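Is this the right way to post structure tokens for a design question? Let me know if I should format differently. Anyway, here goes:
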């Protein structure tokens, strides 16, 4: 790292008995096999983890009241000793930026015990490596009320927060854009209350499809929200002598099976979905993505465009206000640019070079200026809309909201637009999204321009303004073909009746047309050329 001008931040991921229950803590905590309950299904090997996850680094966790019955000071002391071992080994190394004493302690960690641990770890670092930075994770609680003023006056400390969109509800591109830009409000508030903030993990993923993202052969219940794209699995980076390699293209999903689905299927591995070009309506807020296939057709694939703009907006939010960021990961096993810095760089999604380039510094101009509004979908169930209105009112401190129960029709949706819109406007700076359980969406406000479109439109013209015309639907095409056939056939029939004596004679002698000469309609007789042979103009024909 030193040779290439890189710095290293040590981030201690594994705590004894796990600080969060995740597999990346070194031990998946809260786990049991459930195979005996599935014996009738061909002897499947099954297990359960996410519904019973726990973390016991800090002590004995009680899932009934979501608290710790007892603190394990031996585990905490062990972690402090690990910090000291690392400092002793690398204190004089020129490439080391600093240390993070524990990665992602979960949100139920006793906050006072965690802060005490942070204090003690800081003193260990500063005694032996006084120039190291000391970075503390927010314990999934990025709240100025918890961290404001903590360790005030101490040099070289910063707060780490991890900002992902992979677990967000599905939405339009503009919802992800707004959410990315809105993070700068929360970061700025924490910078004022606490001090330096580092976004220690982020990616470009907008769904939960990456293989084993939530654990080996497992997934969070209900995830992923939409079907995933599959690509050929890559060769194992540790070599083919690893168990289960190479992936057998003749086999479907293999066990053991968790509470969710994620794994190779017939040699194919799940990766993030493609983004699709909207075919109608507002290209930013269109809804084609709802029914779009996970693997977009080449002429409709808009992934490069969406990812490029999303990356610039995230970098705008993280670098313009905070004190730095780390992309997760440097590279991945399966080809997954949304999670691979190197692949995203190669595809041009993440810009190279100067972070002060105008494409980054202006990336959130439209979102920052409030050119969007949050509106409820008119297809949303009235009961869901009423629930969302009440939630917003209660967040504003208004619990006397029984009047919402009698709202219906246009009155209900108009009130929802106002109340939910106000809620989103007030809370978006701290990361609130315009979703409300899938019943609301962002729409762009109508803008007026001064005639210079390039100055008023912050995106290049190859971006969201591009709408793909997909042509008429199948029934329009079929109708046009049938109509053209009928018109062409009719014209040909009339022409033949007028200028071909043989054809005229055969038609007149058929039983189908016997009654037509008796018609009193001159139009019918004229159009079908039902007249005497001698009236047909003489035309030279080949005798044969």
């Amino acid at each position: 790292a030193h040779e290439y001008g890189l710095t290293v931040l040590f981030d201690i991921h594994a705590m004894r008995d796990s600080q969060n229950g995740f597999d990346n803590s070194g031990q998946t905590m809260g786990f049991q096999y459930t195979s005996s309950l599935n014996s009738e299904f061909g002897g499947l090997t099954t297990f359960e983890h996410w519904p019973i996850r726990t973390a016991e680094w800090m002590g004995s966790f009680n899932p009934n009241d979501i608290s710790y019955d007892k603190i394990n000071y031996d585990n905490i002391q062990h972690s402090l000793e690990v910090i000291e071992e690392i400092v002793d080994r690398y204190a004089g190394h020129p490439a080391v930026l600093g240390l993070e004493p524990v990665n992602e302690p979960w949100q139920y960690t006793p906050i006072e015990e965690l802060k005490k641990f942070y204090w003690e770890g800081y003193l260990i670092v500063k005694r032996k490596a006084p120039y190291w930075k000391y970075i503390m994770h927010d314990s999934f609680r990025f709240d100025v009320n918890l961290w404001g003023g903590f360790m005030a006056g101490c040099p070289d400390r910063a707060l780490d927060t991890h900002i992902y969109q992979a677990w967000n509800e599905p939405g339009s591109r503009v919802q992800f854009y707004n959410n990315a830009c809105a993070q700068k409000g929360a970061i700025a508030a924490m910078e004022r209350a606490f001090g330096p903030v580092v976004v220690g993990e982020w990616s470009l993923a907008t769904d939960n499809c990456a293989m084993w993202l939530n654990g080996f052969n497992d997934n969070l219940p209900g995830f992923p929200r939409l079907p995933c794209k599959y690509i050929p699995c890559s060769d194992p980076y540790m070599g083919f002598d690893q168990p289960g390699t190479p992936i057998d293209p003749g086999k479907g999903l293999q066990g053991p099976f968790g509470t969710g689905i994620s794994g190779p299927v017939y040699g194919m591995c799940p990766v993030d979905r493609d983004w699709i070009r909207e075919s109608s309506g507002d290209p930013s807020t269109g809804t084609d993505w709802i029914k779009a296939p996970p693997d977009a057709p080449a002429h409709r694939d808009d992934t490069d465009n969406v990812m490029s703009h999303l990356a610039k907006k995230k970098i705008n939010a993280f670098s313009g206000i905070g004190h730095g960021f780390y992309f997760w990961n440097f590279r991945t096993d399966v080809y997954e640019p949304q999670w691979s810095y190197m692949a995203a760089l190669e595809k041009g999604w993440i810009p190279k070079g100067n972070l002060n380039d105008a494409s980054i510094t202006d990336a959130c101009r439209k979102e920052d200026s409030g050119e969007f509004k949050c509106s409820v979908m008119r297809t949303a169930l009235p009961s869901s809309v009423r629930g969302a209105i009440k939630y917003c009112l209660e967040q504003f401190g208004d619990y006397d909201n029984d009047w919402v129960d009698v709202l219906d029709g246009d009155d209900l949706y108009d009130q929802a637009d106002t109340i939910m819109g106000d809620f989103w406007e007030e809370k978006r700076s701290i990361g609130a999204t315009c979703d409300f359980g899938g019943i609301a969406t962002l729409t762009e406000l109508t803008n007026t321009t001064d005639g210079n479109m390039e100055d008023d439109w912050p995106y290049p013209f190859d971006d969201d303004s591009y709408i793909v015309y997909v042509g008429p639907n199948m029934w329009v095409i079929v109708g046009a073909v049938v109509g053209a056939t009928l018109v062409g056939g009719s014209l040909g029939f009339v022409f033949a009746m007028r200028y071909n004596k043989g054809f005229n004679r055969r038609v007149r002698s058929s039983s189908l047309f016997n009654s037509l000469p008796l018609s009193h309609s001159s139009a019918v007789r004229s159009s079908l050329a039902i007249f005497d042979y001698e009236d047909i103009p003489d035309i030279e024909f080949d005798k044969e």
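Format looks fine. Someone answered above. Worth noting: The longest strand covers residues 157-162. The chain has 15 helices and 14 strands.
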